[in-house]
Design a protein that fits this description.
By secondary structure, this protein is of the alpha/beta class. The chain folds into 4 domains: 126 residues, Response regulator (Rossmann fold); 174 residues, P-loop containing nucleotide triphosphate hydrolases (Rossmann fold), CATH 3.40.50.300; 75 residues, Helicase, Ruva Protein, domain 3, CATH 1.10.8.60; 56 residues, Arc Repressor Mutant, subunit A (Orthogonal Bundle), CATH 1.10.10. It is 50% helix and 14% strand. The strands form 6 sheets. It has a 5-stranded parallel β-sheet, sandwiched between helices. A hairpin with a 6-residue loop joins β13 and β14. α2 runs parallel beside α3.
Length: 461
C-alpha cells in the first residue's frame, strides 16, 4: 500500500490511541504515537512529521502546549486538534493559535480522512511553493538585469560571491544604470530573501525627515509626532536596507550612518532607547565619492566603511553589445503589459539604438521602447517610431561628417561597435553575431568591409 504521509497521534487514552493508530495505518498512513505531552514533544524533536493529531486534554497537561511546540520546532507541519469536549470558543482558540483544523469526538471516519487529506495537500502546496520560490530566487534573482558584456558577467559573479555574506556593498554608476535592480538581486540571492527589502531614496528627503524616516521617532519628538514611528532600519530588521543617493547625506546624517554601520545600533529621534538590528546594508550613488571626500563633502571614515565591496555599473554606451538584448527585453515586457502586437525592431532602428549615447541609460531606453510601442503604427519598431535624438543615433553633426559621404561617416562607429563586441566575446564570431542580432555571414562581410578581418588575422584570431 502506498504511504501517504507520516503522522504523529497524541492521546492519553491508550485504548483509543491504539485503535485509531491501527486504523490510520490501514488507510496507508505510517503513524507514530505518544500518550503524554513530554513524549509528544520528544517525538517532534526527533522526527519530521507531515501531520500531527493531538488531543487537547493530555492528563494533567494541555494539548495547546504541544501545538505551540510544533509551531516553534516544525512550523511547516499542520496540527489537527481533537477533543471530546468541543465548544465554539475552544475551536476558535485552536485556530487562532495556529491549528489547521479542530475535530470533536467521537470521530467520524470520513471527516477525519477529509481533514487529513486537506492538511497534507496544503502542506504539499506550501512545500512546492517554497521549492519553486527557491528555484526562482536562484534562477531569476537577477531578472531584468540583462547583459552579456564581460563587465556585466563579472558583476554577476560578484553578486553570487557576496550575496550570502553580511558585507556592506556600495553600488556606483550613472543614473539609470540599474543600481536598485542590483541591490534587489543581492537580497533575493541571499539567506535574507524571505525577510523585508526596504529601499530609501536619501536624496528625496530633507535631513530632518530623512533621520525620522531611517531611525523612526518617539512620541512627542517634534510638533505633529503624535505617536511612535517605526523607522526603515527597524522595518528591515533581519532583511536588507538599500540606501540610494547616499552622497546627498548631510554631515550630521553621515555621523549617524557611520555608527549604525559599525554597531548596527541607533536611537529614535527624540528617544533615549537604543535599538539593535540585524540588517544588511547596501548603498548606492551616482557620484564619485573619492572626489567628494577630497572636497570635504563626504566623511573619509564613512567612505572607507561603506566601500567594502564596490560594484560599478558601466553605462549603456560602454556595453553596446547588450543594447539589442535590453531593447528586446523591454519590448517583450511592454507588449505583455499593454497587449500590443509588435513583433520586433527593424535593423535600421536597432542600429540607431546602438549609435545613441543614452545619457539616461537603462531607464531612458525602457521609456523609449515603451513610447515606440504605444505610439507606433507598424508591426515592428522602425526609426520613425523613435525620438528624433535617438533616431539620429546621438546626433551625428555636420562637422563630424565633413566632406565624407554618409556611408563613410557611419562606418567608423559601426567598426568600433563590432570591434568592441568581438573583444567582449573573445573574437568568437558566432557569439558576436548573436549579440549584434545579425547572422554570421553578415558579420563576416562587415568585418571584411571594415578591415576587421585583417585585424583578426594579425591577432591570430
Amino acid at each position: 500500500m502506498k504511504q501517504l504521509g507520516n503522522l504523529l497521534l497524541v492521546d492519553d487514552d491508550r485504548q483509543v490511541l491504539a485503535s485509531m493508530a491501527d486504523w490510520l495505518r490501514d488507510q496507508g498512513y505510517p503513524t507514530d504515537t505518544a500518550t503524554t505531552l513530554a513524549d509528544g514533544m520528544t517525538a517532534v524533536n526527533r522526527k519530521q512529521f507531515d501531520l500531527v493529531l493531538v488531543d487537547i486534554r493530555l492528563g494533567q497537561d494541555d494539548g495547546f502546549d504541544l501545538l505551540a511546540h510544533c509551531r516553534k520546532h516544525q512550523p511547516g507541519t499542520p496540527v489537527v486538534m481533537i477533543t471530546g469536549y468541543g465548544t465554539v470558543e475552544t475551536a476558535v482558540e485552536a485556530i487562532r493559535h495556529g491549528a489547521f483544523d479542530f475535530l470533536t469526538k467521537p470521530l467520524i471516519d470520513e471527516e477525519l480522512l477529509l481533514s487529513i487529506e486537506r492538511a497534507l495537500n496544503q502542506r504539499k502546496v506550501i512545500e512546492e511553493n517554497k521549492t519553486l520560490k527557491a528555484q526562482l530566487d536562484m534562477r531569476y534573482g537577477m531578472e531584468n538585469i540583462i547583459g552579456h558584456d564581460h563587465r556585466m558577467l563579472r558583476i554577476f559573479d560578484v553578486i553570487d560571491s557576496v550575496a550570502d555574506t553580511r558585507a556592506t556593498v556600495l553600488i556606483t554608476g550613472e543614473s539609470g544604470t540599474g543600481k536598485s535592480l542590483i541591490a534587489r538581486a543581492i537580497h533575493r540571492r541571499s539567506g535574507r530573501r524571505d525577510k523585508p527589502f526596504v529601499e530609501v531614496a536619501c536624496g528625496a528627503l530633507p535631513e530632518t525627515l530623512l533621520e525620522s524616516e531611517l531611525f523612526g521617532h518617539a512620541a512627542g519628538a517634534f510638533t505633529g509626532a503624535i505617536g511612535e514611528k517605526l523607522g526603515k532600519f527597524k522595518q528591515a530588521d533581519g532583511g536588507t536596507i538599500f540606501l540610494d543617493e547616499i552622497a546627498t547625506a548631510s554631515p550630521g546624517m553621515q555621523v549617524k550612518l557611520l555608527r549604525i554601520l559599525q554597531d548596527l545600533e541607533f536611537e529614535q529621534v527624540g528617544g533615549t532607547k537604543t535599538f539593535k538590528v540585524d540588517t544588511r546594508i547596501i548603498l548606492a550613488t551616482n557620484e564619485d565619492l573619492s572626489k567628494a571626500v577630497a572636497e570635504g563633502r563626504f566623511r573619509q571614515d564613512l567612505f572607507y566603511r561603506i566601500n567594502v565591496i564596490n560594484i560599478e555599473l558601466p553605462p549603456i554606451r560602454e556595453r553596446i553589445a547588450d543594447i539589442p538584448l535590453l531593447a528586446e527585453h523591454f519590448l517583450k515586457n511592454v507588449c505583455e503589459t499593454t497587449s500590443r502586437k509588435v513583433r520586433g525592431i527593424t535593423d535600421d532602428a536597432m542600429q540607431a539604438l546602438q549609435r545613441y549615447r543614452w545619457p539616461g541609460n537603462v531607464r531612458e531606453m525602457q521609456n523609449v521602447i515603451e513610447r515606440a510601442v504605444l505610439l507606433g503604427k507598424n508591426a515592428a519598431i522602425g526609426v520613425e517610431d523613435l525620438p528624433s535624438a535617438v533616431a539620429a543615433g546621438g546626433g551625428l553633426s555636420i562637422e563630424a561628417v565633413g566632406n565624407q559621404s554618409l556611408k563613410q561617416a557611419l562606418s567608423a562607429p559601426e567598426k568600433q561597435l563590432i570591434l568592441e563586441v568581438l573583444e567582449s566575446n573573445h573574437w568568437n564570431r558566432q557569439l558576436t553575431a548573436a549579440a549584434l542580432g545579425i547572422n554570421r555571414t553578415t558579420l563576416y562581410k562587415k568585418m571584411k568591409r571594415l578591415g576587421l578581418e585583417e585585424v583578426a588575422l594579425a591577432m591570430g584570431r
